[in-house]
Here is the input.
Amino acid sequence: MLSASLLQPADLLKTRVQQSGSSSLLRTFQGIISGPNSLKQLWRGTLPSVIRTGFGSALYFSTLNALRQHIARSDILTSTGFVVARHGNLRASSSSLPQLSNVANLATGAAARASAGFIMMPVTIIKVRYESSLYSYKSMRGAATAILKSEGIKGFFSGFGATAIRDAPYAGLYVLFYEQAKQRFSQLRDSAAAVSTLGLQSAMTRSKSVSINFLSGVLAAGLATAITNPFDAIKTRLQLMPGRYGNMIKATQRMIKEDGFKSMFDGLGIRMGRKAISSALAWTLYEELVRRAEVKWEEKITTVL
Here is the structure.
């Protein structure tokens, strides 16, 4: 929630760039700061953004954790290769999560994100319209009332197809890239330790573990964002102007015809920066909380025995 508040200007700028397709990031920023209440305008839409990020992240990580734990405990899935190992080694690895196959990482991430995205869709619609210069909502309640009156219930789910096609692959690819990056960085660390200590490897310290997880999160977010950005650009147009763009296919055709193929990558740079920071922070914190919970559980079991 804190990261959503701090990074809200980046989200707003991305929405403004994507809404037109003809304005650069610099020109958009200059247009905002040259107007009245420039500082306030940069943080417009913070409340729905914080609500969406807070509740959405809780739903996503809860669902993801439940799915991964279920798969890790499934004997059938273990026998088919979906589970690599039951649990990460807390002392020799940066990971505190069940070690799943690439397919399982991709599937669990996509399923958890699509589910959370659907539930939070009404808040997402209000958030995007708040950030846009096309609407002048004064409050979340006023925004909800206006959308319901003009578009009905379906207005709260405008662009869900494009949103799901963006979020599900993004989350699936993120988990896949994140787990792969952690594995590669841990191997590099082990190789370096073997050379420096003549084969005597020590347990991974908490600081090294956090560093590996954070760097893996940054790289995973960058790659997943670049791949899924066209769907994000289409999603923004559909959520802001559903009457004009209709559906995902029509929106894609119209955007390419009017603004060129480059419109599919509007806002990519700022979205990559925001996602890299927010996702890396969220996942590093998530892994650290899981690690501490498992350590306390092991200590409790040891004490009982």
